[in-house]
Amino acid sequence: MMQKPTNALLLVGSPKEENSTSNSLGTFLAEKLQEKGVSFKKIYINRCLCSSEKAASLLRLVDESDLIIFAFPLYVDSLHSQVIKTLELIAEHAKDKEDMATKSFVAISNSGFPKANHNSIALAVCRIFAKQVGFTWAGGLAMGGGGMISGRPLAEVGGAIRNQIKALEIAADAVAKGEPIPEKAVSLMAKLGIPHWMYIWMGNRSWKKEAKQHIAIEKMCDQPCTRREVLNL
Ligand SMILES: Cc1cc2nc3c(=O)[nH]c(=O)nc-3n(C[C@H](O)[C@H](O)[C@H](O)COP(=O)(O)O)c2cc1C
Question: What is the band of 233 on the pLDDT scale with cuts at 50, 70, 90?
Fold first, then answer.
């Protein structure tokens, strides 16, 4: 049974830290919760895994929180190594503790490709993690087309992500009351505000622009050499 939270911990799982879509989405949700009386602290996991002292301070904050929000990017259809490492650290730390069900866990995954369902496995991993550790699963939100945000505050991005803004507002309302994230928030989060073809067209355009800046436009279709080519056979 989920409880009404008072102290949230936002774990930002992107190596891009402040400039990440994970940060934008997680911070928006945490700030909405703050407006409803839930205080929050934020940690960039990228800065914590390099030393045992910093990892210990992350775990201390997990102990002090009754809501953990983990926002991360999708890498190769799954969680990336730092996110997995953090979950493993938390699981090991929680092993002998008893009050874990008083903590709720929310996962927010975002991917580069436009279809949100690419994130399904990553969210399932988080749900099973929460179950195994004994946390109360409050729900998972996934969006495709994360490149539309790229670290900007959501209010700055505007209309193209109106569905994600609405989804996070609905989620904040529910979680602040001690209720799981409603299905309506999950479906809105997954719905891009622009057609998929337009997002892909914009993505291709910016790859080409960047390649041009690096004088690499002719190399864009290069592929790794085969062993025969390396050996010059
Ligand atoms: C190594 C790597 C692997 C990725 N794999 C995927 C993938 O499998 N599917 C996908 O849709 N996006 C993939 N992406 C794109 C990121 O999920 C996307 O850019 C996301 O918006 C980054 O979020 P962030 O700003 O929070 O880091 C990958 C990016 C990197 C760097």
Answer: low
Q: Does 2 reside within a domain?
A: no
Q: Do residues 63 and 177 both lie within one domain?
A: yes
Alpha helices in 36-161 (DSSP H): 52-64, 81-94, 120-133, 154-157
Alpha carbons 7 and 41: distance in angstroms, whole number: 8
Task: State the distance from the centre of ligand 1 to the C-alpha of 96, rounded, in angstroms.
Answer: 34
Mean pLDDT of the chain, nearest integer: 95
Distance, CA 74 to ligand 1 centroid (Å)?
5
| CATH number for the domain harbouring residue 152 | 3.40.50.360
224 domain-assigned: yes
pLDDT tens-digit profile of 179-202?
999 999 999 999 999 999 999 999
Residue nearest to ligand 1 atom 25, measured at CA: 20
Residue 1, in any domain of the structure: no
Asked whether 120 and 202 are in contact (CB, 8 A), the reply is no
- Give the chain's domain count: 2
- pTM for this one? 0.94
How far is the C-alpha of 72 from the C-alpha of 112, rounded, in Å?
12
CA of 75 from ligand 1 middle (Å) equals 5
Q: What angle do CA 181, 184, 189 make, to 5 degrees?
A: 85
